[in-house]
Amino acid sequence: MTAAPTPVPSSATAADQLGGGAGASRTAPNTPHAAPTAKRRGLRPKGGAWLATLPLLVFFAIAFGLPAVAIAIGAFTLSPDAPSGAGSFTTSNLTASVQGAYWTALLGSIKLSALTALIGTIVGLPLAQAVVTSRFRLFREAVLSASGVLANFGGVPLAFAFVATLGNAGELTKTFKLTDHGWTLYGFNGLSIVYLYFLVPLMLLTITPALEGLRVQWREAASNNGATSWQYWRHVALPILLPSLLGGYVMLFGSAFAAYATAAAMVGASVPLIPLHIADALSGNVLVGQGNVALALSLDMIVVAALVMAVYLPLQRRSAKWLA
User: Fold this and answer.
1) Is 88 helix (H, G, I), strand (E, B) or coil?
2) What's the pLDDT tens digit per position in 176-234?
3) 101-323 — its CATH code?
4) How far apart are CA 76 and CA 295, in angstroms?
5) pLDDT tens digits for 45-86?
6) Which DSSP category does 98 fall into?
7) pTM: predicted TM-score of the whole model, two decimal places
8) How far is CA 51 from each of CA 66, 131, 228, rounded to the nearest angstrom?
9) Domain ranges of the chain
């Protein structure tokens, strides 16, 4: 007499027997009734997140939105001290902001920012790599902490520090007799060195997370395939880091472009820069009826800053895909 075949348990029943009911819990989300519930639950954090960002949006609208609107309105209206038609619509302010000394100052700011940002990017990358690969944790933390301080160090204290060190009567200038070789701190080259004092630490802070995101497996795979260290950086690391490097360069450019207090305290009018001309216009050092030219110059800076952010944000998203 043949024994009856033993019934084969279903996958859910077998999972229940092995996992104490775990199979039922796994299949539950796939039921028709569970999916809408999960979908509804997934929508709740989004609404809460928007509500949580409301104070930040209000602050942004008050601190940045209202001044930007006021600048835009003033840039297209005549100054209150204009001989005639005060407050009326005009494009003469914008026309004047891209002519003569103002145009020279705008080009000077772009040149200074582009050069210092490039040098800061080139110098900051190997320094950041040295910090990331350092085996001394205290050294790494000390460098990153100091970079955070130096990246925000500027204004009159920074100008005074360099004047006391590399000015015409500075300690290093007298010790090495730099003036005999044509050195001067109060020019384009001197100001570039001062800007690098806070741009290089800023680049180090910007690129360090990207360097930490490089996988060890990528370097090992390149080494196993016979690639040298230079080939690894040329064909693997640098292409991956390129969006982060460009994003860091754009950030350094924006920081240098908007800097004012250091240049005003150190070089004054000897180096034509757009923030210095804005300060002169706001203080009344312009022709009668052209007070709103300062607002037009400010609008030019806002446009440049907007272009900088328009380039930076896509680069940041692109680098996050590789280094997430």
Assistant:
1) coil
2) 988 888 888 999 999 999 999 999 999 999 999 889 888 889 889 989 988 898 999 99
3) 1.10.3720.10
4) 9
5) 555 667 878 888 899 889 888 988 988 898 888 877 666 666
6) T
7) 0.76
8) 22, 39, 52
9) 101-323
Which residues on adjacent β-strands are paired with residue 89? 77
- List alpha helices for the chain, DSSP H: 11-19, 22-27, 34-52, 54-60, 66-75, 92-97, 100-132, 137-150, 155-166, 171-176, 188-212, 216-224, 229-232, 238-258, 261-266, 274-282, 293-323
Tokens (6 digits) for 19: 């996992």
Could you tell me which of 120, 118, 117, 143 has the C-alpha nearest to residue 130? Answer: 143
The Cα–Cα gap between 293 and 287 comes to 10
**Residue 120 Cα distances to 4, 108, 126, 203, 251, angstroms:** 82, 18, 11, 7, 11
Rounded to whole angstroms, what are the CA distances from 219 to 127, 128, 199, 212, 243? Answer: 19, 18, 29, 13, 19
- What letter does residue 89 receive in the DSSP assignment? B
Structure tokens at 149: 């301080």
Report the candidate in 274, 280, 320 with the shortest Cα–Cα distance to residue 297: 274
Residue type at 23 in one-letter notation: G
Which amino acid is it at 310? A
Quickly tell me which residue has 């240098």 as its tokens.
Answer: 256
In the block, tokens 């022709």 appear at 287
| Contacting residues for 114 by C-beta, under 8 A, at least 6 apart | 253
Residue appearing with tokens 């100001």: 191
